[in-house]
């Protein structure tokens, strides 16, 4: 399974991977399917890299729910 990234201005990539992984796991534990979990995690990581710092860059769930961006279209499938 592949998950597309979301295009955002990058400020700081610190903690982006940890944020992504944490949201995938949290969503799966909450009962979401893998596709939904990966998409929410991708949105979360996009928000995180658009902010400076590690812990301060991690968004709250309502920020992820309200995230607006177009996914980067991949030519690979």
Give an overview of the whole structure.
The chain is an all-alpha fold and 77 residues long. The chain has a domain at 16-61. The chain contains 3 helices and no strands.
Approximately what portion of the residues adopt beta-strand conformation?
A: under 5%
Give the structural class. mainly alpha
Please state the average pLDDT score: 90
Q: Describe the global form.
A: globular
User: Using only CA atoms, what is the Rg?
Assistant: 12 Å
**Secondary structure tally: strands:** 0
List the helices and strands and how they pair.
Layout: H1 16-29, H2 34-49, H3 61-65
Helix pairs in contact: 1-2
Summarize the structure.
The chain has 77 residues and is an all-alpha fold.
Task: List its salient traits.
mainly alpha; globular; 77 residues
């Amino acid at each position: 399974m592949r998950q597309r990234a979301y295009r955002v201005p990058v400020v700081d990539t610190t903690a982006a991977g940890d944020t992504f992984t944490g949201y995938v796991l949290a969503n799966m534990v909450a009962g979401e399917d893998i596709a939904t979990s990966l998409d929410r995690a991708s949105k979360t990581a996009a928000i995180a890299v658009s902010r400076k710092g590690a812990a301060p860059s991690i968004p709250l769930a309502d920020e992820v729910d309200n995230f607006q961006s177009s996914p980067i279209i991949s030519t690979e499938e």
